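This protein record is not my work; I was only asked to verify it. Would you go through it and say whether the fold makes sense for this chain? Here is the record exactly as it was handed to me.
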Amino acid sequence: MQISNHTDQLTALVEAGVHQHIFPGAAWAVGSIGHGVAGAAGRLTPEPGSAAMQVDTLFDIASLTKIISVWSLTGWLVRRNRLHLDSRLADVLPGTQGYALAPVTIFQLLTHTAGLPLRARLRASYGEVYDDIVRGVLREPLEGIPGQAVDYTDRAALILGLVIERLLGMPLDHVLEEHILRPLGMAATRYGPLAPRHDQLVAPTEYCEQAGAHLAGVTHDFSTRLLGGVCGISGLFSNVPDLQRFLHEMLAPGLHGDVLDADWVRASLTLQTGMLTPSRGLFWHPAAGTGPQDDVWCHLGFTGTAMWLSPRRGRYAVLLTNKLYYTRDFTRINALRGDFMRCAFGL
């Protein structure tokens, strides 16, 4: 299936999302190594005078941060034998020694099988001081038995981010810039808060009572804001062109130098959780409504963002929206995501 054959249908789907008030605007792309199409629809806000959405508009990509930042850097460390999937947290994070997290492995964090607490509760449990929060997270009890169930939780990415910072001796945002973003040419991608620039469009998200306005250039995720805006959970702002570069690298590791390893990508896009459900690779998971024969993997973001990848088809897809501007209900955005994915991959 030629991607260009479905450009009109993809455009119509995204424009319908705007007209149906699923999101004020969106930017998207579908492509392969040698070819791609991209577009944008709607505006930054529903107001008639608002700026039109552009392909390079910056979005709060929410949990896509887990992939761009923590997943990629974990692979970078594994490739260099600085970290192993069977490494125990007690061996790479001294603050966990003697506590429930000590025997949890990197593999269990990446597959969401570590038995971690499911809800954030950071401020309620540990206050607002960064060191107190980190200490509390590393000493907290588990809610499940490691290896026995798949339960998605932000804690996994938060802890992996701390592992990365300790092993490389630098803040997560600096490490990401040096080892992933700069080599891939992802110049627009960075942790917030973003300094206002007259030439930069940033899609606003949810209305914040405290700020008295919709958040724009400040991460929506409260836990990330509590931790200073930089962590493994969320916090990155990016755009379609940068995410295309990242997904190109996943389809052809080594395209931009020694950034992502082919074995790491292959392992991550392979079922790693056996008979447990829902199925997981390493941070990636099969797209909803697909089977093994489809080979379409994805990760979603709470603000209305999504990335899909199919090595078998040699194709990727990105859909960035600011659906959170309207609502936290996911019924309609998930239906549209499904339609977009099926059209993008010919399912």
User: Anything to note?
Assistant: The domain at 69-172 is CATH 1.20.58.710 (Methane Monooxygenase Hydroxylase; Chain G, domain 1). The first strand starts at residue 25 and ends at 31. The mean pLDDT is 95.
